[in-house]
Specification:
InterPro entries: DUF7492. With 499 residues, the chain is mainly β. The N terminus and C terminus are likely disordered.
Length: 499
């Protein structure tokens, strides 16, 4: 049964607490580099996540458990979790990346076996990375206010930030180094394809572009969020998880509706975050590229290019993963989003137009004549007509709807015959009634025309019950006839009859 209601927070917390947690599931942001978009090469020295360089902190006693930030903290969401583990005061200016508005940056993480040795039940893309940016960070930014709320144009959730990019955790080239041996298939295959050393781990990366409207001499904060749940393979389409199609375990606690999955598809909800602070500086221009490139070359000396190069495909799109994004506001239905495109539910509402009732299709040309509903096809109206005694009325009513083919034959009197052909072009759906009594003038090209005239072979109403000309008419005229029946407001135009 599809779950559509809100799951009690305490109930979900107990459910998730009762499930086993993995002990080695952790990754975080290792380093950040500027990118030269023309060459894809990294530039300058790296920056680090808030708190500093973990590798330098390890000799000082820092451990994985102290560094990583796994959510929910106690195995069950309560809706009040901060997205940032480290407070603003933990930022170390000397270890932050300097970048300019519009710069491309590479955010590196190690796969730590989550790609090389995928666990059963884990998403086939090894989880999805969401990169959120804000110029207004606080120590109390909540994941429930940000994740799947902030959107590409900054109009989602509390509107304090935006979604910069989505990426697969597995960038399809990274691997954990493995020496030659029985357990080296992925490392060997990938290293061989890109010319790297299979024993030397190649970090994964998320390449993103900073907004172009950032203020120089300011700070911009990026929240790196990796969602990596343990799924029940019997209750979810695992093949679709390669495209990021799986739920976030916090959606039920937040009260999202129509999530598209039952809550029991998730055996264990796991999300990990890192916080990145970037010093926004005035544009460095091309003059600095040479110096910056030299610094990066020194850092990566002796290594193959993939260690110091952005991924081409990521530089061509901001949103590499589709995902279900709830509409703005808690408890509103998620929609399948191609990121970067605002959810349909956020589009401005368009008032419904009032449409007048339309006449039925059948048309009576003479009293007692049979009713025919034409099918929409190409218009060709052929008339062979001499007034018939059986149709003495001085009024002819004709209705054209959509585009139709209609052939009408009225038995001519022995005295004369007139045959002509006309094509009626209907540009939009119309409901038009043309009616005129005998000898009533009909407006043609803004001039009064006697009722005994012809219009390009189309028999005008005045001819009903009158003697027709004996020769075939070749007159070509365009008539504009105003509709006597209201048409929809968005479709109210004059109907041209073109002979």
């Amino acid at each position: 049964m599809k779950f559509t209601g809100n799951l009690d927070r305490a109930g979900l917390g107990l459910l998730l607490c009762a499930l086993p947690a993995t002990v080695d599931a952790h990754s975080w942001v290792e380093r950040i580099f500027r990118i030269n978009p023309d060459t894809r090469q990294f530039l300058g020295s790296p920056g680090y996540a808030r708190g500093g360089d973990f590798r330098e902190l390890v000799p000082q006693g820092m451990t994985d458990a102290e560094w990583i930030y796994r959510l929910p903290l106690d195995g069950g969401w309560n809706g009040d979790e901060n997205i940032n583990k480290q407070p603003l005061s933990a930022a170390i200016a000397d270890m932050e990346l300097d970048a300019s508005p519009g710069d491309w940056i590479a955010i590196q993480h190690l796969e730590n076996g989550h790609v090389t040795k995928k666990e059963p039940g884990r998403p086939l893309n090894s989880g999805t990375l969401f990169l959120y940016g804000t110029a207004e960070p606080t120590d109390n930014d909540k994941i429930a206010d940000i994740h799947l709320k902030w959107n590409a144009d900054g109009t989602g959730g509390n509107k304090k930030g935006k979604l910069l990019a989505t990426r697969n955790f597995d960038d399809l080239q990274c691997y954990e180094g493995r020496p030659a041996g029985a357990d080296d298939e992925l490392a060997r295959t990938r290293a061989s394809a890109i010319g790297t050393d299979q024993a030397d781990s190649l970090p994964c990366q998320a390449d993103i572009q900073l907004p172009t409207d950032l203020a120089p001499n300011s700070r911009y904060t990026i929240y790196w969020l990796w969602d990596w749940p343990l799924l029940d393979e019997t209750k979810i389409d695992m093949a679709a998880t390669a495209e990021g199609k799986f739920p976030w375990s916090g959606s039920w606690v937040r009260g999202d509706k129509d999530i598209g999955f039952d809550p029991d598809v998730i055996l264990n909800g796991e999300s990990y975050t890192s916080t990145i602070d970037i010093n926004i500086v005035p544009s460095m221009g091309n003059a600095s590229i040479g110096t910056q490139q030299a610094a990066a070359n020194t850092l990566f000396q002796g290594k193959a290019e993939p260690y110091s190069q952005a991924i081409k495909e990521q530089l061509s799109t901001d949103y590499g993963v589709s995902f279900p994004q709830p509409a703005a506001g808690d408890g509103e239905a998620p929609v399948e989003s191609s990121p970067g495109v605002p959810a349909a539910s956020e589009a401005p509402a368009t008032p419904e137009e009032s449409v007048a009732p339309q006449p039925e299709d059948p048309v009576a040309s003479c009293t007692g004549a049979s009713m025919v509903t034409p099918d929409p096809v190409t218009v060709t109206v052929t008339v062979t007509d001499t007034p018939a005694a059986s149709c003495p009325s001085a009024m002819s009513t004709s209705t054209v709807t959509e585009v139709v083919t209609q052939t009408t034959t009225v038995s001519p009197s022995p005295s004369s015959t007139s045959t002509s052909t006309s094509t009626v072009i209907v540009e939009e759906t119309q409901y038009v009634t043309v009616a005129a009594p005998e000898e009533t003038p009909v407006v043609v090209n803004n001039a009064a025309m006697p009722a005994s005239s012809t219009r390009g072979g189309f028999i005008l109403p005045g001819f009903i019950g009158q003697e027709q000309p004996s020769s075939k008419s070749t007159t070509t005229t365009t008539a504009t006839v105003a509709s006597s029946v209201p048409t929809p407001l968005h479709n109210r135009v004059k109907l041209p009859f073109v002979a």
